[in-house]
Design brief:
With 168 residues, the protein is mainly alpha-helical. 78% of the residues lie in helices and 0% in strands. It is built from 9 helices and no strands.
């Protein structure tokens, strides 16, 4: 491996390996599998020169997406399905919550980028299920202000998610 490639790979590892590893452990609960996924993710990034030329935030977003796909591919693989051995068949089938977990993490990170005022009305409206009038009364602000904050907050949230590569 040429010296320049070794330097770039080392810088890529230093900047992104730990967050990607924590993310994969969060998804899978398996530290050993996380090591393998991080290694494969770094290898794919190194093999994709355009990724190394992007800004660090875009590179990290790309790496999180690749890691997520590797986790999903592993979970869906026939190899993985044959390895699961249980004494008794479970009564209730459990669904794979990987997608929901990933989406929750992305939304949480995007909400954190908003101003406190915008975040407050969005959380109360969408997660709290409150109407405009209820939010206005609770925050002691006019309903028009709630509507405005909700509009501009959702707009900022959409932009934050676009920056993470979630929406167009």
């Amino acid at each position: 491996m040429p010296r320049d490639d070794a330097t770039r790979l080392s810088a890529l590892y230093d900047a992104h390996a730990a967050p990607v590893w924590r993310y994969v452990v969060h998804l899978t609960g398996d530290r050993a599998a996380a090591d393998d996924v991080v290694q494969e993710t770094l290898l794919r990034a190194w093999r994709t020169p355009r990724i190394l030329e992007q800004d660090p935030a875009s590179t990290r977003s790309w790496m999180f997406t690749v890691a997520r796909h590797l986790v999903i591919d592993d979970a869906r693989s026939a190899h993985r399905r044959r390895e699961i051995a249980v004494a008794e068949t479970p009564d209730v089938a459990t669904s794979d919550l990987t997608d929901a977990l990933f989406e929750a993490i992305l939304v949480e990170e995007a909400l954190a980028t908003l101003s406190a005022d915008h975040r407050t009305v969005i959380v109360r409206a969408y997660y709290g299920g409150l109407a405009i009038a209820e939010i206005a009364a609770e925050l002691d602000i006019p309903p028009g202000t709630v509507k405005s904050r909700l509009h501009y907050g959702l707009r900022a949230l959409r932009l934050a998610l676009q920056e993470k590569g979630v929406t167009r």
